[in-house]
Structures are given as C-alpha cells and as structure tokens.
Design goal:
The chain is 37% helix and 28% strand. It folds into two domains: 7-180, no CATH class; 194-287, 2-Layer Sandwich (Alpha-Beta Plaits). A six-stranded mixed beta sheet has the order 4-3-2-5-1-6, with helices on both faces. It has helices at 19-30, 59-66, 71-84, 96-105, 117-120, 123-136, 145-148, 194-205, 243-262, 280-287, and strands at residues 7-12, 34-37, 40-43, 46-50, 88-93, 113-116, 139-141, 157-164, 173-180, 211-220, 229-238, 266-277. The chain is elongated and about 80 Å long. The chain is built from ten helices and twelve strands. The longest helix is centred in the last third of the chain and has 20 residues, at 243-262.
C-alpha cells in the first residue's frame, strides 16, 4: 500500500549531463506539473517545498538530502504532495536506483515510465553540460532565480532564459532557469564587494522622496545563521517627512534592488533615522 496514488516518472542520466536543464521540457511533453530535483519539489516555475541538496556542505550530504533520508524533510515533502493533490510527478536522478529510492522513501508508487537523458539530448550537448559542470562548478535548477535566492544566498546564481515551443503553429515562450554553484564547489564562493551594495543603496536613496542622504551603511554577508545578507543604514531625512513611510519605502526598494542586481538574498534591512535635515532658508525664517 503506497502513501500516494500518483503516476511517477523517472528522468535519468549521469550527473552533469543536463537533466535539470531539460526537466521542464520532458515534464511538458508528458503533461507533468510537478518535478522533484535535488531535494526540491517544483511546480511550473515555482519551488513549493524542500531544501536544495546542493546547499549541503559535502557531496555525501547532498546525496542523502536528494534521497530524502532525513525524516523531517521527507514528512514535509509528503505533506505538500498530499496538499497539492499531485497526479503525476517527474523524479530526476543519476541512476534507475536513485529515482526508485526517492519514490520509495516518499511513499510513491514504483516508477511507471523512465526517460533517459540520451533520448532527449545529443552526445555533444551532454558533453558541453559536463564540461560546464567540471570547469565552472555550475548546476541548473529548473526554476527562476528569484524563487531560489533564499536557498542559495551568497553563491553564484545566473538567470538563463531559453526559448521553448508550446507546440505546432504556436509562438515560442521563454522559460527561465537558474544556474547555481553548490556549496561544496572547489571554486569557492562568489563574493560581491561591500562597496557594490553601498553604491546600490545610495542610488536607491536618491529616488526615495524624503531621504536627504545616507549617513552610514554596514553590510554583513557572513551571518550564516540568518541565511542571507544583513544591511544596516543610518539616514538623514528631510524636515516634514513622514519618517515611518519614508524608511519603509527605502527598506523595500533597497532590498528589491540588491536582490535584483546581485542575486543575493537580503535577510534583513535595518534603517535608523539619525538626523533631520532642515534647509538653510527654512532655518533663517524660523530665526526671524
């Protein structure tokens, strides 16, 4: 007796041959709306459950996470699958045994159909994917960059847009993927200078009505317990400004712009109004 009555598919191929890159194409051809890839449950272009196995500190832990050996993560995934009323699901794996194990661990029925990477990609395409994995340490997750920032803060993410066809006589559409560098990559972390963050914030502040100037900015990219970048700033606001509204607008705009331009997740933005700016002409009037 299986936990779910779902039709399960396996998409199989060696690591680094382009499975994640082609996952949505395969799912679309089979009418599948849900994909399990490296510990994530993906629906369309959205991550709806799981923690990417690529965030693990070692390759061994990555495999364990991808197989849902951890009871807590397994139960979380099962709850979401049940809530979503999934009818078909595509499981990505490096071998038949891997997709069978994932299905078994999640209480899914045995794999009913298997698609192999060499059926949908040429040897040349697979070799290109392998070369990128080996030389650049990059891995594709079949969701937009925005959706996985929170899972990969501090590491390289590049949006990759791919033209795909909906079918005969229909206009192609753009499907966005995200390329990430796993934590354990020998190439190390992708870092961005604090001055880049500061320049972004200063530029944003010039567009927020009520902000006179940024007086101080502190960036913390090493606070691993919060899972992202911490931003602290002290500002001078114009006299007569609604301080709460102004600071909230600056906080929202700064977070959005940093995430859009650096692909790094901003865990928190703290802003303190340290000074109220009063123009000289107004000061003179008040002194008369």
């Amino acid at each position: 007796m299986f936990l779910f009555q779902i039709k399960t598919y396996g998409f199989i191929g060696p690591s680094g041959t382009g499975k994640s890159y082609r996952a949505q194409m395969v799912a679309g051809e089979k009418g599948i709306n849900y994909i399990i890839d490296d510990g994530l449950l993906i629906k369309g272009n959205e991550v709806i459950a799981g923690v990417s196995a690529k965030k693990a500190p070692t390759k061994i832990e990555t495999v364990k996470n991808a197989l849902f050996i951890n009871e807590e993560r397994k139960e979380e995934m099962q709850k979401v699958i049940k809530k979503q009323k999934v009818d078909k699901i595509l499981i990505l794996g490096t071998s038949d045994g891997m997709v069978d194990k994932i299905a078994s661990n999640l209480g899914l029925p045995p794999i009913s159909e298997r698609i192999y990477i060499n059926e949908v990609a040429t040897e040349e395409e697979m070799e290109t994917a392998r070369r990128i994995r080996i030389t650049q340490g990059k891995h594709v997750i079949p969701v937009p960059t925005f959706e996985i920032k929170k899972d990969f803060s501090g590491y390289l993410l590049d949006p990759l847009q791919i033209f795909k066809s909906k079918g005969k006589d229909e206009a192609p559409y753009i499907s966005e993927k995200s390329i990430i560098r796993p934590t354990f990559s020998y190439l190390g972390k992708f870092t961005i200078s604090d001055s880049v963050f500061k320049d972004i914030i200063i530029n944003v502040a010039t567009k927020v009505k009520g902000v006179h100037k940024i007086m101080r900015i502190r960036i913390d990219k090493t606070a691993k317990d919060v899972g992202g970048v911490l931003v602290y700033m002290e500002v001078s606001v114009n006299f007569g400004t609604n301080i709460v509204e102004t600071l909230n607008r600056l906080k929202k705009d700064a977070r959005r712009e940093i995430e859009n331009l650096t692909a790094m997740y901003v865990a928190n933005v703290e802003i303190v109004a340290k000074h109220i700016y009063i123009p000289d002409d107004m000061m003179k009037k008040n002194n008369k």
